[in-house]
């Protein structure tokens, strides 16, 4: 059995556990020059992310930009029992995230933390003072990323707090911008075993400020 098939089986087990469906990859023609296709982060990768960093040190809410059907938000909420919000501009995926949320809440009515999805452009999302952890799976082009980071930094002027960015499969221009034009510093890199060796994008880079 190939590694991809084993991972698929594992992902399906998580989907059954959470009572959601997030596996379908978006077709390329649905993507644009500024907004990239939907592809969910593997559950194996999310497990590494949650177990290789002390998230308890960072209070506040997770924001997943370009959340698609909500996999990251659901996993975060279920595993850590903490607030999460997903931002998705594509109506189809937002509707599927909402459907997943209904199924999830029916099966976990006593879960702690609030889980929410918003249909909107990432640049228009008003950063809340409780938003402290921001997840990016290369969801859009550099100009949009820069505008989102600008919004985050502006929120810090009003509500000073510790901020963490999680970049997965991020291209060099994202890293160059953060390291050369902002005060964010790389705090940790979590490589995905057996994938990173052949593809340096297969890693979570955690920036903090």
UniProtKB/TrEMBL annotation:
Molecular function as annotated in GO: methyltransferase activity
Keyword Methyltransferase belongs to the record: yes
Keywords: Methyltransferase, Transferase
Gene Ontology terms: biological process: methylation
Methyltransferase domain boundaries: 63-156
Domain of life: Bacteria
InterPro entries given in the database record: Methyltransf_25, SAM-dependent_MTases_sf
Name used for this protein in its record: Methyltransferase
Organism the protein comes from: Fictibacillus macauensis ZFHKF-1
